[in-house]
Predict the 3D structure of the following.
Amino acid sequence: MIFQVLIGLRFLAKGDFLSEVSDLHGVSKASGAVIVDEFISSVNARLNNIRFPTDRNDIIQLKRTFYQKSRIPNVIGAVDWTLIPIEAPKENEAAYVCRKNFHALNVQAVCDTDMRFTDVVAMWPGSQHASALFDACGLKDYLERTGAGMLLGDSGYPLRRYLLTPKLNPTTQQEEEFNKYHSRGRMVIERAFGLLKSRFRCLHRTGGVLQFKPGKCGKVVLACMRLHNLCVNRGVPEPQGVRPEATESTPYILDNPGSEDGNLRDQIVRLF
C-alpha cells in the first residue's frame, strides 16, 4: 500500500511521464498506470474535504477573517479560474484550446483565507469564459437562493449581489481604495493556485501535460486539490518560491452600473 502511495504521489508531485515513474519504482508502465489510477480514485473517494461552509458559525467566522483581510463585509470566499494543460483530446479538440493557444481544462475554484479550496468545478474546456463557468455552477444557485454572502471575483466575472467585482476605471480615491482591498482579499485564490501547482507539478506547464482524457484529467485535478487541502489542514510547510498565479481576465462588459447590484457595490465603496 505504501509503495502504491509513493508512486501516486510522485506522479502528481513531479509531473513525470508514467514510464519514468514506473521505471524509478521498478514496475512496468502498465502497472504504474493502474497504480496511479487507483491512487487518484482512492484519494477522491476517501478525502471529502472540499466543502463549502453552510454552518452558521462557520460562515460568521469566514466573514470575519475575510473582513480582517479586505475590509469588505459579508465575504465568504474568493473565486477564480486556472488553466490545467492537457493532451489534445480526440473529441471536440478545438473547444479545449485556451486563449494562450494550448489544450487545457478551465478549472474554477473558491477558497477561504487559509487558501483551502471550498468549491471546485473541474470539467470545462479551456476555451470557456469565466462568466460561463460561474453561471453553470451549483454554487451560484446556492448563493442566489440563500443570500449566505458574497464571493470576491476579478473583472472577468459579472457583478452580482453575491459576486463582488472591482470597480472598472476607478475615478475617486474611495474607488481606488476599494479596488486595493478587494485585490488583497481576492489574492488568496491566486496564491492558492500558485501553491497547488508548486506542490503538484503535474498541473503546471513545466510538468508537461496531463496525458489522459478530459474526464480523467478533471479527477486528477480534484485529487490534487483534496491533497492540497489535507496539507493546509495538517499545517504542511509551503514549498519555497511560491508565487501567486495571476490570471488574465477580459473585463466583463455588463458591469451593471446603476443596477441593484451596482448600487450595492457603491454602498461598499463608500465604506472606504
